[in-house]
Amino acid sequence: MTKIRSWLITGGAGFIGSNFVHYWCRQYPNDKVVVLDALTYAGNRNSLVTLEGQANYSFVHGDITDQSLVESLLRDQQLGGIVNFAAESHVDRSITGPDAFVSTNIVGTHRLLEAARKVWLTEGMASDHRFHQVSTDEVYGSLGNDDPAFTEEHSYQPSSPYAASKASADHLVRSYQHTFGLQTTISNCSNNYGPYQFPEKLIGLTICNLVRGKALPIYGTGKNIRDWLFVEDHCRGIDRVLRAGQSGGTYNIGGGTELTNIELVQRLCDLADEVIGASPELQARYSESPASKGVPCSSLIEYVSDRPGHDWRYAVDISYIERELGYRPQTNIEQGLADTLQWYLANESWWLAVMDGSYQQWIDSQYATSDSSLGNGQPS
Ligand code: NAD
Ligand code: TYD
Q1: CA 323–ligand 1 middle distance (angstroms)
Q2: Is the model's pTM score more than 0.85?
Q3: For the CA of 219, the nearest atom of ligand 2
Q4: What is the pLDDT of residues 79-90, one digit of tens each?
């Protein structure tokens, strides 16, 4: 069990990071939490606003590639743990602009590791310390329909620049444990969903578009499969790893719910039809939504060109973390989707503020340039 009581949470203003910061401050109110975030398009201080003013919480606007800043935070604030969520995280953006992925995901992780090595090991500040890397199942590549789910032993076969950058970072983390004795752990999780997700990923985008009567883009055939993990369950999984995981260990965290993209979007449409259809207040607020006109939201589904190199299927085997650390997801997909829809309906100002003009322009340019001839990775 870790004795660490003071943490640097990088990328804590992003989707999973902000959920984790709320989770941690609730679970361990006496721990010190310092968030370091560059506030890129995906970072949002509004996601943490309810923590402002709390004695054990502070926010630093800065970049993980700034090693001297990270060193001084570790030293001055006496921080013994780093949980690294900071990343460029969207596969589509890694296809149109991979440079930022190399810079933040690879170089940034390396700078964090160097800062940790210097302060915790060379200067000897923290004999009990932990560097935790939040990674992804996408490092393992893509599965066919009948393949067994990814275990921790699966070889790394990343397909997108995003996945390749995360794989590189994982290798660096392992090398710092092996070579320098830095105490590290890695978790590789499946697709997260829940509150505070930037509406460029499938679930957030679907909700924000269906309430406004905008098209719901489905790439390729819509038959690609993802394993969906409610973000709070992911936070619980990381908690187990931080408190009881072995240094040098890798733990897969999944939600245990595999769905094709079209099944998932259909479920969200059905849910929205029911929730909006039963509420005159929501019908007045979202008059452009088909659900407000008695038309199914699924009428907004539009098949568009496939993502280049689109991974076919991800599925995560969680038997190792279940056996070793007693982790199990607690939120089933019905409850998770219902809670997520309710959160977006109740927090319209949050997502309207992040969906500004530049984001909309970026989305529009994606559909103009995508090229279906590059294939969707479907096994033949
Ligand atoms: P996100 O894009 O919502 O948030 C990323 C955060 O990192 C933002 O707050 C951003 O401002 C910050 N950031 C980016 N570059 C930075 C830099 N150079 N310095 C400091 N901060 C920087 O991402 P997310 O969905 O919350 O993902 C968090 C982590 O989980 C990532 O490492 C991602 O690879 C991993 N992951 C995410 C998912 C998912 O479904 N979202 C699945 C598997 C793994
Ligand atoms: P996404 O949320 O971008 O996560 P990832 O690519 O990391 O799995 O996409 C989830 C799946 O949904 C993926 O197969 C791509 C697909 N997708 C669409 O069909 N339409 C969309 O508008 C988006 C954003 C994704």
Answers
A1: 28
A2: yes
A3: 19
A4: 999 999 999 999
